[in-house]
Design goal:
The chain has helices at residues 5-18, 30-43, 60-75; strands at 48-52, 79-83. By secondary structure, it is mainly α. The chain has one domain (5-83): P-loop containing nucleotide triphosphate hydrolases (Rossmann fold, 3-Layer(aba) Sandwich), CATH 3.40.50. A two-stranded parallel ribbon has the order 1-2. Helix 3 links the parallel strand 1 and strand 2. It is globular. The N and C termini lie far apart (34 Å).
C-alpha cells in the first residue's frame, strides 16, 4: 500500500515544526513526546496502525490535524485500530464498546 507522499510530507513537517528539538527527550512535555511518537509512526509506512489513546496530551489543533491524517490513512485503504477515552471524529469508522 502506498501512502501519498505529499500527505506524508505535510504531516511530518507539521509534527516536526511542533517539536522543540533543542531539548533532550526527557525534557520534552508530554504533548511534545506524543507528537514525536506520531512523527515516528508516519515515517514507518505500515498498512495497520495500532494506537492507544492517541489524542491524550494533544492540543485541539493537533487533534484536528491528526484526524485529517487518520482520514487519509483510511482513504488509502489503511487500517487504524485505536483505543481512546475521547470521542473519535472520523468518517466511516466502526466503534466497539468494551465494558
Amino acid at each position: 500500500m502506498k501512502f501519498n507522499n505529499s500527505i506524508k510530507d505535510k504531516s511530518v513537517n507539521y509534527f516536526f515544526q511542533e517539536l522543540n528539538l533543542d531539548k533532550k527527550f526527557y525534557q520534552l512535555s508530554y504533548g511534545q513526546k506524543k507528537k514525536l511518537q506520531l512523527l515516528l509512526l508516519m515515517l514507518v509506512n505500515k498498512p495497520v496502525w495500532i494506537l492507544d489513546d492517541p489524542f491524550s496530551g494533544l492540543d485541539e489543533r493537533t487533534i484536528i490535524n491528526l484526524n485529517g491524517l487518520f482520514e487519509k490513512k483510511l482513504e488509502n485503504k489503511g487500517i487504524i485500530i485505536l483505543a481512546s477515552h475521547q470521542n473519535v471524529n472520523l468518517n466511516n469508522y466502526k466503534t466497539l464498546q468494551l465494558t
